């Protein structure tokens, strides 16, 4: 494709999702009128695809200058990246299939742009700011973090007294994790697995590693597709929940013997490792929807393999002594590296929170540390979403309000 065709293709993708992101559109209209980000420079590291482009445009419409890098070496869509880079007040440095060096070069370019507000997905920008680029910290007003793992990293920095800027934990907004992590991952991880393998899910033993918000969504949709779902957990409460939702629960070393498709969603490392590969069935398919590329231990698998070859786009075959094991998208997020990411209607809420939190940082001086999304913003996003869906709900009457806040009434 020529550059002109790439830009055309990227812009078509952006227009399509924008038509399905009503809450972000309401915010765009407000930003257009009020220009709340005038004079601000927003530096971002997110998955560069169409819904993210819609967020970037919203921030630019709000008056900001924006520079963006990717947050995963395999999730950038180059046509969208190029289309974004052509737009006023936007620079995009993301590239698909970049090596680690190129990945961090792009992050550095975003920091060279000297942002005063950051948006991260996994905290790579903030990590760099606190290690090699500390000279930039004094001019940072604050940042936003998109995902669970990023928040774990930031809270660990806060515990160690290392976090030197305020960050809003956007992931922890209810209008984010209850929908994005659960319904978004539930749908898009299976979309990625199915379009990549072109295989049937019905009748298979599907093993879901972790029963957090992503795991619940992934298990729910696997069950709907007709799979026999097995969950592995380390948390007794979540294991119980998984069982009572109708799944089997067992340790991975047992699940490894019977699973046909494995999907990790823990945010932890080594969920599938040597001892599991030793007992895993011939033909097993391994995918990750958690984070980075450490949930499936590829070093173990590589060491055990007599050959490794690509057998279809985004599928690598590892030949072990007595079997073949298939890894999707190099163990990186299967929904983004082998698919188009979450549905637009879900990212609508996640990115509405991002846009509103960037505005909040621009308008409020926050102390260093990890902050929750102000509940009025979170509830506001839910109200706008319901309105856009044509759904109205009941209101408490005065009597109900008084009853709910009183203690005098008994049996
Ligand atoms: N693919 C995507 O688009 C997408 C979307 C949202 C979040 N994420 C990422 O997915 C990961 C999970 O996010 P979440 O919001 O579901 O987190 P969560 O904290 O709600 O759930 C993680 C679960 O994994 C379990 N777990 C941890 N170590 C385990 C182990 N060794 N074996 C089995 N279970 C284990 C935890 O007990 C927990 O229940 C994070 O890395 C997050 O950043 C990815
Ligand atoms: N950057 C790390 C961390 C996990 S990304 C997980 C985040 O991706 C976000 N996400 C999922 N789908 C999309 C999408 O289509 N566009 C942009 N972000 C997305 C989602 O909000 C979630 O919190 C990595 O790549 O491994």
Automatic annotation (TrEMBL):
It catalyses: S-inosyl-L-homocysteine + H2O = L-homocysteine + inosine. GO terms for molecular function: adenosylhomocysteinase activity; trialkylsulfonium hydrolase activity. Its cofactor is NAD(+). The keyword Zinc-finger does not apply. Residues 181-341 form the S-adenosyl-L-homocysteine hydrolase NAD binding domain. It comes from the Archaea. GO terms for cellular component: cytosol. The keyword Amino-acid biosynthesis does not apply. Pathway: Amino-acid biosynthesis; S-adenosyl-L-methionine biosynthesis. Binds 1 NAD(+) per subunit. InterPro entries: Adenosylhomocyst_ase-like_sf, Adenosylhomocysteinase-like, Ado_hCys_hydrolase_NAD-bd, NAD(P)-bd_dom_sf, S-Ado-L-homoCys_hydrolase_CS. Substrate binds at residues 121, 146, 176, 180. NAD(+) binds at residues 147-149, 181, 210-217, 233, 268, 289-291, 335, 342. Its EC number is 3.13.1.9. PROSITE patterns: ADOHCYASE_2 (PS00739). SAH is a product of SAM methyltransferases and is known to be a feedback inhibitor of these enzymes. As a result of this inhibition, organisms have evolved efficient enzymes to metabolize SAH via different pathways. The pathway found in methanogens differs from the canonical pathway, it uses the deamination of S-adenosyl-L-homocysteine to form S-inosyl-L-homocysteine for the regeneration of SAM from S-adenosyl-L-homocysteine. Belongs to the adenosylhomocysteinase family. Catalyzes the hydrolysis of S-inosyl-L-homocysteine (SIH) to L-homocysteine (Hcy) and inosine. Likely functions in a S-adenosyl-L-methionine (SAM) recycling pathway from S-adenosyl-L-homocysteine (SAH) produced from SAM-dependent methylation reactions. Can also catalyze the reverse reaction in vitro, i.e. the synthesis of SIH from Hcy and inosine. This is S-inosyl-L-homocysteine hydrolase. It comes from Methanolobus profundi.
